[in-house]
């Protein structure tokens, strides 16, 4: 079968390879014929070999996917051949640590993600585990369902890890796929004002932010961002800042603007040291909260909201055939649109 394989370290070392269809299904495994595979920022980081996490190579990329079940292991009871499904991202968790036992398996120290440490979904087939598969509602397309994963990342950050109430002033930094989905989900809480910050390069993605419910977008190069944010309302700043970028400069901005007793939720990663004092955070008695990945109940909720049309990531996306993987990567990289989806079996 065709697969988009990151075959060695070094920039640009990705190609289409002919690899075997996954076989030897374990008793709890499920084989999926992949219908949609989203390209994630982390796939692009691996493509450029600038990822900040351990990887194995060669590895088939992709961890955001939907498809049709074509085979199930001998002890699978919840699914059968022909079911339309999505799967979560942890190809392996230990099932023994306190986080696995309490349903917070996204925090399992032994977690291995698809497309990073286990072959992923930018291929005609992928093998996954019954425990992390979900049925897709009838009215949700495979393309839309393939973006359940980034929607759940945003859901976890906004609905689970943030304190957010109707009327709140909410600022999202970074209109990438996660920032855009944070915008859409924050909108469900009926904020008093929802502001999204990007750069000149983000102009097309900032348009999507407006479509996703932003009251205002700020282009960082067009004046003092901190001043603009603090000019709204009583001048004390946003109740909640969602930092979906990951560089130190945006965390500094977040600390500078967050309302006393407010919250910063940080979703963006960056291996560099932050390089500034966190004293203002302490003086403001504000909260700095990390958010990572998602778990089973969040997927079920996001799928319900997709069925009702309350969550719809598709306006930020463009689809490509698997042979066009390079175009899919490069166009997303150039910020032409926020999200590329590869269709391995159109
Ligand atoms: Zn992702
Ligand atoms: Zn574990």
UniProtKB/TrEMBL annotation:
Gene3D superfamilies: Medium-chain alcohol dehydrogenases, catalytic domain, NAD(P)-binding Rossmann-like Domain. Its cofactor is Zn(2+). It comes from Alicyclobacillus fastidiosus. It comes from the Bacteria. PANTHER family: L-THREONINE 3-DEHYDROGENASE (PTHR43401:SF2). The keyword Ligase does not apply. Keywords: Metal-binding, Oxidoreductase, Zinc. InterPro entries: ADH-like_C, ADH-like_N, ADH_Zn_CS, ER, GroES-like_sf, NAD(P)-bd_dom_sf, Zn_alcohol_dh. Residues 10-342 form the Enoyl reductase (ER) domain. It holds the Pfam family ADH_N. This is Zinc-binding dehydrogenase. Belongs to the zinc-containing alcohol dehydrogenase family.
């Amino acid at each position: 079968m065709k697969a988009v394989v990151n075959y060695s370290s070094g920039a640009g070392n990705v190609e289409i390879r002919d690899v075997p269809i996954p076989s030897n299904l374990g008793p709890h495994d499920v084989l999926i014929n992949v219908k949609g595979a989203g390209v994630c920022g982390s796939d692009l980081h691996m493509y450029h070999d600038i990822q900040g996490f351990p990887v194995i190579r060669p590895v088939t990329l992709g961890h955001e996917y939907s498809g049709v079940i074509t085979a199930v292991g001998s002890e699978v009871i919840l699914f059968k051949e022909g079911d339309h499904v999505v799967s979560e991202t942890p190809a392996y968790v230990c099932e023994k640590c306190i986080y696995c036992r309490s349903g917070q398996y996204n925090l399992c120290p032994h977690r291995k993600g698809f497309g990073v440490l286990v072959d992923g979904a930018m291929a005609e087939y992928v093998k996954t585990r019954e425990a992390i598969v979900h049925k897709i509602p009838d009215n949700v397309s495979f393309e839309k369902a393939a973006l359940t994963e980034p929607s759940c990342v945003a859901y976890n950050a906004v609905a689970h890890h943030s304190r957010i109430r109707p009327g709140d002033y909410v600022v999202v930094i970074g209109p990438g796929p996660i920032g855009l989905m944070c915008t859409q989900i924050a909108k469900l809480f009926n904020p008093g004002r929802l502001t999204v910050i990007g750069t000149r390069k983000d102009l097309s993605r900032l348009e999507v932010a407006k479509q996703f419910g932003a009251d205002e977008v700020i282009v960082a190069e067009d004046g003092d961002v901190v001043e603009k944010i603090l000019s709204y309302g009583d001048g004390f700043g946003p109740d909640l800042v969602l930092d979906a970028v990951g560089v130190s400069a945006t965390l500094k901005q977040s600390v500078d603007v967050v309302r006393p007793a407010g919250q910063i939720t940080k979703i963006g990663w960056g291996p560099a040291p932050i390089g500034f004092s966190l004293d203002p955070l302490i003086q403001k008695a504000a909260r700095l909260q990390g958010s990572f990945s998602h778990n089973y109940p969040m997927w079920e909720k996001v799928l319900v909201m997709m069925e009702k049309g309350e969550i719809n990531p598709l306006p930020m996306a463009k689809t490509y055939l698997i042979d066009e993987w390079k175009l899919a990567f490069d166009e997303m990289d150039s910020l032409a649109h926020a999200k590329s989806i590869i269709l391995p079996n159109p």
